[in-house]
Amino acid sequence: MQRPSNIQIQEYDYPLESHRIAQYPLEERDASKLLYFNGKIQESQFKTLSSFLPENSLLVFNDTKVVQARLIFAKNTGARIEIFCLEPVEPTREIQDAFQQKSGVVWKCLIGNRKKWKSGELEMPFELTGQKNVLKAEKLKDEREYSYIRLTWTPEELDFATVLEETGKIPLPPYMDRNAEENDKIRYQTIYARNEGSVAAPTAGLHFTDAVMEKLSHKKIETHYVTLHVGAGTFKPVSDEEVGNHIMHTEQILVKKELIESLINKKDQKLIAVGTTSIRTLESLYWIGVKMIHQPNLEEYKISQWEAYELDEHIASLPSVEQSLQAIFDFLILHKLQELRSETQILIGPGYDYQMIDGMITNFHQPKSTLLLLISAYLGEQWKEIYQYAMDNDFRFLSYGDSCLFLYAED
């Protein structure tokens, strides 16, 4: 398995004109186009997805929920300061736990109009069940482009999830050149979202409807869920000429013991990941199991940016998928855990050998992005043919755009 360090990111550029970027979702989620590729390109609508999936498929979704992480404060001078909450720092770094905290939390944030906020507290009044409340923000320190912000509120017994729900706005991606609207609270969220923690949607899942899920059920296609909390780094382009100089973002993942067991016993089922976040979670799972086998006494098991390639290089005979997953399952049993909580920084690019997945459902991704590298690791150079077809046939791109189903052709 070859580490993609020396790849020139210019090779993963293409001319994405602004009119191709979907600014709004279609009226019906499953009315989006579907590009199906299994060696040749076919075009359909997403509502027909089940007809393209093998009957023995097992679909894995990311059930993370987007939080209203953009807080807009107004100073007495009239200046608007935007605080974009990225990740929790105190009293816990665990994202799901962080949203249950009472008043007095510290978050790592991006600050819009930062020059206008030198010091002092910002205040935002809000109302809940007829009671007047206030959210306050205090800047603790700046660190490069980030700031550490202490947030307090009244009444103090409210949890942070409730405060964000009442005061925050949905953080639309930067390539959507508009403010978030009321409808985005619903449409920039999958129908199965339940674990709060993302600042960006796992967009491949936005196409699913109850009707599509019912068709999957009728075809006896299994559905399971993982959680990867999507960070703002997912939109960060590779700005260096060589991929090896890019620093990948780290994201928290959560995988239930029941899913590990199902994956161990899946036999000849085709494992299809819904979205790049599910892919990164599942592939990281394999390497976490490898570490548990070969480094059994670690206090915690995480996957850093290049670790998969390093493990492949240094281990003469890698364990099978079943052996790796069994190691995780045994670890959970030993420690009386119902779920694996971990972090991944894995960068999947050309040269990576997929260990877990057989196929993927995904949207069309930005030029020079790590997401485009991820799909090219699966498709090879054929990604160029697929993206050219999409541009020639008026597919809509990025978060609110159209979808793809990629499956390896049967031998």
Entry summary:
This protein has 411 residues and is of the alpha/beta class. The protein has helices at 49-52, 95-98, 160-167, 184-187, 210-218, 257-264, 276-294, 307-314, 321-334, 370-379, 382-392, and strands at residues 33-37, 41-45, 57-62, 64-66, 70-74, 80-90, 105-112, 122-128, 131-143, 146-154, 195-198, 222-228, 251-256, 270-274, 339-344, 359-363, 403-407.
What does this structure look like?
With 411 residues, this protein is α/β, with parallel strands linked by helices. It folds into two domains: 4-66 and 188-407, 3-Layer(aba) Sandwich (QueA-like); 70-168, no CATH class. The protein is built from eleven helices and 17 strands. Strands 2-1-17-16-14-3-12-13-15 form a nine-stranded mixed sheet.
The ordered string of helix (H) and strand (E) elements is EEHEEEEHEEEEHHEHEEHEHHHEEHHE
By DSSP (H or I, 4+ residues per run), the number of helices equals 11
Q: List segments where confidence is low: pLDDT < 50 over at least 5 consecutive residues.
A: none
The name of the CATH superfamily of the largest domain reads QueA-like
Query: What is the average of the pLDDT values?
Result: 93
Q: Helix proportion of residues, in percent?
A: 10-25%
Shape: globular
Give the total of beta strands: 17
Which fold name corresponds to the CATH topology of the largest domain?
QueA-like
Strand order of the largest sheet: 2-1-17-16-14-3-12-13-15
Query: What's the CATH architecture name of the largest domain?
Result: 3-Layer(aba) Sandwich
Give the end-to-end Cα distance, rounded to a whole number of Å: 22 Å
CATH class wording of the largest domain? Alpha Beta
Largest sheet data: 9 strands, mixed
Measured by DSSP, the beta-strand proportion falls in 25-35%
* Overall tally of structural domains: 2
Report the radius of gyration as a whole number of Å: 22 Å
- What structural class is derived from the secondary structure elements? alpha/beta
